[in-house]
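Issue 218. Parser rejects a valid record. Input:
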Amino acid sequence: MNKQSLNKLTLFLTGLENRIEENREYFKKIDLVFKSGTKEFPGSVVLFGDKLKLSYSGNSEIIERNWLALRLSKLCQNYDSLYLTYEERGTTIYIEADDRNVKMKTNENKIEEVLSNHNDMPQISNRDYYIKVGQANDLLREIGILASNGKIKNDMIRKYNQIDHFVELIDDMLKELLKEHESITVLDCGCGKSYLTFVLNYYIREVLKRPCHFIGIDNSATVIEASKKIAANLGYHNMEFKLTDINSYRAQRDIHLVISLHACNTATDQAIAFAVNNNVKSVVVVPCCQQEILSQYSYPPFEQIIKHGILKARMADIITDGIRALILEAMGYKVSVVEYVSPIDTPKNLMIRAVKANPPNPAMLNKYKELKKILNIDPTLEKLIFQY
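Output the parser choked on:
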């Protein structure tokens, strides 16, 4: 390759160096094809710890990230042309270089382009999905939603609708956070296998095209290892998973959104308390079984109603989530409680969304204290926040 083309190629490759540095958590790989006459010599570049592993013609070498441009340019001196494909999550860059010219083009993996030749969506509905079949196939396949034929599994259509509805319900919250911060960090408390966390990661990075970082914590070693494996399979380097409980966790970076999905009993309260005590801007919880208030509350005017066990339990669920919302409001959060999934699927179908909007509200705190006395309850959430 001549000197003029090599100089231009070096300039483009320097841009890729900078891109890897800025987007290291999202970088996947570089595929290379060197050509001499009709012969082709494939190669690749992948991350290797803090460095890069360059492989070509049966050889491999470890190089510093800022050596990439010079090393590839030097190799190209021995070939007629280079075809390079750079991949990061949501973006593919192509570079073609020979003695005549050096060209670069970018494919941003736009939804419209991916779906233009994809006709599987009508199998579900006419809904405009946030997590689209076609674009999100790797993700959907890894979390068990998509079959090998590229279609949603019949027994997973309901689950697919649920995960997409979850994104829909917090989309405005995410976009507001991204107006305030260049990059956001999401903490998933009691993450389990983290399916919805992977979905959020995909949506923020590859649909909204914004930087993000995810931390999942759980006290089960099995689910932590399962989550790590899924992240590795997807190439989601912007995720970390920690074996710990919520009360013991200490954040090493600013957290912008706390989520807790189907955490049992007071584990939901622990997640909310972490958010409040660490001044986290946004909170999303979908509570699960709620036993604490059930064993505590009494309300004489309802005595003839709650003498029936099932009605007492359902009332306890409502009181528990209502108290959570009231305490959040007392701490200055704007709160909404919405139906997450149909009650046909599960009776545990409420989502509490909260965004820090004001300083603590003493009047609302007094209302909570009055209600606490009336119901004869002593919620864990109050203890965790006010450290009694």
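Fixed in the parser; the record now loads. The chain has two domains: 3-108, 121-386.
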